[in-house]
Design a protein that fits this description.
Elements (H helix, E strand, L loop, with lengths): L1 H10 L3 H6 L7 H10 L5 E5 L7 H6 L3 E6 L2 H13 L6 E3 L12 E6 L9 H15 E11 L9 H16 L11 E2 L12 E2 L3 H11 L2 E7 H5 L15 E6 L3
């Protein structure tokens, strides 16, 4: 897992990737969901903040963000954005599976742009959710997004082909012993943005949240939120990103 985590870190440390993510602005759906479940003045964690796309606007919206990312160049760019906008915001390098904060530190956590899918292996994702539980105050809300394996979009056929190839390799004994469903691990010699990602079913995330004690109080897709459609499990099959809002009980 450490090798995969290093791949993610190195991939998001490259100058052209940092440049690609050097924009600032919440999605309309992010803005709506944050205001629906958080209160202005709340101390919130911007987990996997990248180059500051969400950090600066969260502060501008009246929240008090603390931001961390695995890749130092991303954090440096986020700091430049915050300085340029004269927004005081604590930023640092940190790992979602081992957060450098005390228990009950935040009223809210945002893990945006499917960042949890970059955490290697299912055990790593469970560790990230466990850490989110630990640092979240009772009554606080974790907001995160993912893709979905069963989504009907332009990538559906390639996902099915990849699943078929994975099953064939397992049957022939060619798959690595630790290979997991939904993993995308490109050759490190290729020039691609992402060197590791794992796309699971939303059902799996819902199961993990329940097991850890979270209450899933809202679930929908980005496009359904933008269209003002109600929360629904039908969002599993929508082609857009999925939003989860998980509450830590009082």
């Amino acid at each position: 897992m450490n090798e995969l985590k290093q791949r993610v870190k190195q991939g998001y440390s490259r100058a052209w990737v940092v440049s690609k993510y050097s924009t600032v602005g919440l999605w309309p759906s992010e803005r709506e969901i944050c205001h629906r479940f958080w209160n202005r003045g709340d101390r919130v964690l911007d987990l996997g903040c990248g180059a500051g796309r969400t950090t600066v606007p969260l502060a501008q919206e009246g929240f008090k963000p603390v931001a961390i990312d695995l890749a130092q160049p991303m954090v440096a760019q986020a700091a430049r954005f915050a300085d340029r906008m004269a927004i005081p915001c604590p930023l640092g390098v940190g790992d979602a599976t081992d957060l450098p904060f005390l228990e009950n530190s935040f009223s809210g956590i945002l893990f945006s742009y499917n960042g949890i899918e970059l955490v290697p292996k299912e055990s790593g994702k469970i560790s990230a959710l466990t850490e989110a539980w630990r640092v979240l105050r009772p009554g606080g809300h974790l907001i995160f997004t993912t893709h979905a394996f069963e989504a009907f979009n332009k990538y559906a056929i390639s996902r099915l082909k990849r699943m078929g190839l994975d099953l064939l390799n397992r049957a022939l004994g060619r798959a690595p012993a630790d290979a997991e469903f939904g993993e995308i691990i490109p050759d490190p010699e290729r020039t691609v943005e992402v060197y590791y990602m794992q796309i699971n079913s939303p059902r799996k995330y819902r199961k993990w949240l329940r097991r850890l004690g979270f209450e899933l109080v809202y679930y929908n897709s980005r496009s359904r939120i933008d269209a003002d459609k109600r929360s629904s499990r039908l969002a599993d099959f929508d082609g857009d990103f999925k939003f989860y809002v998980a509450r830590k009980p009082d």
